[in-house]
Design brief:
By secondary structure, the chain is α+β, with helices and mostly antiparallel strands. The protein has a domain of about 40 residues: 3-Layer(aba) Sandwich (YefM-like fold). It is built from 2 helices and 3 strands; from the N terminus they run E-H-E-E-H. The chain has a 3-stranded mixed beta sheet with strand order 1-2-3, covered by helices on one side. It is elongated.
Length: about 80
Amino acid sequence: MRAVEIAASEFKARCLAILDEVQRTGEEVTILNRGRPVARLVPAVPRGGRTPQETLRGTVRVRGDILGPVLPPDA
């Protein structure tokens, strides 16, 4: 994945097109102000189409009573 850097003035002029490109390609865009990075634009959903929560779904198993006290009452 190549690094994409864009001046803030160009981002302002082409904002919607850049948003579409980030969504389509999954590439991250760094926005520069006077040559210095000020923001990063990243896709909301990774390229595989699954969010981190979807990736982890079904991987946690609950053991024991999760609603009861952690310590015994006489502790």
